[in-house]
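At your convenience, could you comment on the folded chain following this short note?
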Amino acid sequence: MDWEVRRFAEIDSTNRYLLDEARRGAPDGLVAVADHQTAGRGRLGRSWEAPPGSSLLVSVLLRPRLPVERLHLVTAALAVAAAGACGAVSDVRPGIKWPNDLVAGPAGAEAKLAGVLAEAELPALVAGIGVNVAWAPPGATCLGPGVDRDALLDGFLSRLGGLLDAGDWAAVASAHRRLCLTIGRRVRVDLADETFTGTAADVDDDGRLLVDVGACIRTVSAGDVVHLRPVD
């Protein structure tokens, strides 16, 4: 993968920028990086806010040759690449909270380190990630103020490019599964029209969460998942 990196001191949203570029026909491999976002977005309509220069804020424009139902694997690749890059430039070894948040900290008390947001402008897919580097909001964690954001970016793009060039989506699914700390945990799943609890049994080869609710295994393609403590 050949990356074209465009840097911004400030922008409303790196995802929004690349979605506009996708509509104009921009090619695979365009990258937007910002020191500060004034309207950063997270999953489920949440905002992403961070002081200028404190986080790695990066989005990539991709045109994957995958059916829509397997596009989860692209964001899984981002999470796997980011986890490896974080471990290479810091002492933090993140895991993945399904679907694609990076978390770190003591087992059972992990805090959010990074989040991934994917948005489609088919056949293009724009996926952004925000990694807390020198600062974290309450309840979250960060890599540490001594971490070089450029080295983190280079490591992330190198790993992501390798995964995409290989095109081995089974390997991506396997790597995502190995890093997924949600598997084996009691979880609450919040969907648009219902909420249920169960035990996260596995993640399938398309990146979907399999939840054992007792009477059956439910397959979750998208939703908000909360790790529950044993006493909950």
Q: What stands out?
A: The CA atoms of residues 32 and 139 lie 27 Å apart. The first helix runs from residue 14 to 23. The mean pLDDT is 93. The chain has two domains: 4-179, 186-227.
